[in-house]
Amino acid sequence: MEIEHTASRESHRERILDATIQLLAEGGREAISTRAVSAAAGVQAPTIYRIFGDKQGLLDAVAAHGFEIHLGDKTRLEPTGDPIEDLRTGWDLNFEFGLANPALYNLMHSEARPGVATPAAIAAIELLRSYIHRIAEAGRLRINETRATQLVHALGAGITLAIIATPRDHRDLTVSHLAREAVIAAITTEAPTATAPGPAGAAVALLAHLPRTNVLTTGEFGLLTELLARIAAAE
Predict the structure, then answer these.
(1) What CATH number matches the domain at 62-195, 1.10.357.10, 3.40.5.10, 1.10.10.10, 3.40.225.10?
(2) Radius of gyration from C-alpha coordinates of the chain
(3) Ramachandran region, residue 53 (left: φ > 0; alpha: ψ -120 to 50; beta: rest)
(4) How many C-beta neighbours within 10 Å does residue 59 have?
(5) Averaged pLDDT in 10-residue chunks for the chain of 235 residues
(6) What is the pLDDT of residue 55?
(7) Which CATH code for domain 1-53?
(8) What is the pLDDT of residue 113?
(9) Could you tell me which residues come within 8 angstroms of residue 50 by beta carbon, excluding any fewer than 6 positions away?
(10) pLDDT at 87
(11) Which of 8, 48, 181, 216 is the residue whose CA sits 20 to 30 A from 143?
(12) Model pLDDT, residue 185
């Protein structure tokens, strides 16, 4: 009986999410109301409150669902031997997803609440972080991984939201390409940092490989990590 109840709840949840996303795509955020969603999903309004708590809970769940869909598209990509090219591919997938799902993408990014991140949103950032980490391991990252991840995430989402907000007949889709190449030039080097001037790049590369060593004590590992991070962030 419990299994049947859980399955019914999950079925209702999926129907409500699908209905909300459809309403969002057709009429934007203004089209989302408890009455409209319950009618489109074929459920009673109390069911929505029982599963999602309130309207904000429903919108949070829809945004999380959007991240899950987007994350699924990205995780199906097989890494190549060129981590910078993989970052380009990830950027383009993000942009294409936003153009194909403008209202959902807008909900996922522009209405994010400070300090509140869904597990799916965190997973999306971690996936981007893995792209950046592979660039660092290749000795091609110019700045520290955290800064590079935040920069790519902010610019990728910002450019996509800006293009979405632009009327279709005034959009210049090459802006995304220009921004992508600008940010890649800002965070990467043409050659591995071992042959490039300056200590910051070398510190970034060593930080990426440091977890692979087992010759340091816990204290030594922590101290070296702190020192390298300071060098990497200084330039």
Answers:
(1) 1.10.357.10
(2) 22
(3) left
(4) 17
(5) 57 91 88 90 90 88 87 80 94 94 88 70 89 90 91 95 95 96 92 59 77 82 82 72
(6) 86
(7) 1.10.10
(8) 66
(9) none
(10) 96
(11) 216
(12) 94
Q: Residue for token digits 């899950």?
A: 68
Give the chain as a DSSP string: -HHHHHHHHHHHHHHHHHHHHHHHHHH-GGG--HHHHHHHHTS-HHHHHHHHSSHHHHHHHHHHHHHHHHHHHHHTSPP-S-HHHHHHHHHHHHHHHHHHSHHHHHHHHTTPPTT---HHHHHHHHHHHHHHHHHHHTT-BSS-HHHHHHHHHHHHHHHHHHHHHS-GGG--THHHHHHHHHHHHHHB-SS-TTSSSSHHHHHHHHHHHGGG--SS-HHHHHHHHHHHHHHHHH-
Look at residue 167 in the predicted model and tell me its pLDDT. Answer: 95
